[in-house]
Design a protein that fits this description.
By secondary structure, the protein is mostly beta strands. Helix content is about 10%, strand content about 50%.
Length: about 300
């Protein structure tokens, strides 16, 4: 039996001292997300937020199905400018009317007009949606599937790094060293169906056995067009390394089998003129050591099904 699904979203917005919605910088031909709007504010304290209510109703000619209504998220933004060079940004989210998460919380200090230092809970700069995840900044109700499965939005980790805007060559950049994804705790975390999503540590009692490098470069020198290249490189973390004797070859081999190498590449483009908007994303993730990982994380005689690559 075929079912059609209607999804309706209602978004309500609370704004103080700034507009959180996606805006276009006329001088730089680039777009700003909420954190960037907070950082560009002149006031000491900035407060804002948004919320999403989702209504889903399956439809069928021969069957009645119950619809669902969900306060999917309510978000509060708080930012503070300590000075023109030192600023703080935070994003606090309630999900499903019961879960509380911190999605961003970092300090930024401006070294010069080309470079800023950042440290704290940072959004991984992969693709578009992870940084521009407010509901008014993309078409559709739910976030795109590839931004859920391949680039696991909202993806954030604790770390530090640099960011900046090179106006003379119409470029922006970010480069961070962060804690890696969790691949093994008491059992395997990754799989073919779950992909890497459950490996996000989200800054909540995160542990580090192997840090990861993440970065993005954006070019906005062509009118109405922004293109970006992003990457994430590292090895998944494993709790088997806790108190492990480095001279115990069997323990070392076991720990090695619980970790996966991750090399994620992204390319994206955004073009907007008057009433027309085009957005495109491409992701490729290469995974190494998956054969050993699948055998080690097997459930009984059934091996895990994590592949060697993901494409979207």
């Amino acid at each position: 039996m075929n079912f059609k699904k209607i999804a309706i979203i209602t978004t309500f917005i609370l704004v103080a001292n700034y507009s959180f919605s996606q805006t276009e910088n006329k001088e730089q031909n680039t777009q700003s997300n909420t954190a960037e709007n907070l950082l560009s504010g002149n006031s000491g304290l900035s407060i804002g937020g948004y919320g999403e209510v989702h209504y889903n109703q399956p439809l069928s000619k021969n069957k009645f199905d119950i619809g669902t209504v969900d306060l999917h998220r309510m978000v509060l933004f708080v930012g503070y400018n300590f000075s023109k060079n030192t600023q703080f940004v935070s994003e606090i989210e309630f999900e499903y009317a019961k879960e509380l998460w911190v999605e961003q919380a970092f300090l930024q200090h401006k070294l010069n007009k080309y470079m800023n230092l950042r440290a704290g809970l940072l959004l991984i700069p992969m693709g578009i949606i992870n940084e521009y995840h407010e509901p008014t900044t993309f078409n559709g109700v739910e976030r795109p599937v590839i931004d859920n499965k391949i680039s696991p939005s909202t993806w954030r980790e604790i770390g530090f790094g640099i960011s900046g805007n090179l106006n003379e060559i119409y470029s922006k950049y970010q480069l961070y060293l962060v804690n890696g994804l969790s691949g093994y705790e008491t059992a395997g975390v990754f799989s073919g169906s779950k992909t890497l999503r459950d490996g996000r540590l989200k800054g909540s009692k995160a542990y580090v056995t192997s840090p990861a490098l993440s970065g993005k470069y954006e070019f906005y020198g062509i009118s109405n067009l922004t293109v970006g290249l992003s990457g994430y490189f590292g090895k998944s973390n494993s709790k088997l390394l806790q108190n492990m004797d480095k001279n115990d070859q069997a323990a070392v081999a076991k720990a090695d089998s619980s970790m996966v190498g991750i090399a994620m590449f992204g390319a994206d483009a955004r073009f907007q003129t008057k009433g027309f908007k085009f957005t495109g994303q491409f992701y490729y993730t290469g995974l190494s050591n998956t054969e050993a990982y699948n055998k080690f994380t097997a459930k009984g005689n059934l091996p895990n099904d994590l592949g060697s690559a993901m494409l979207g």
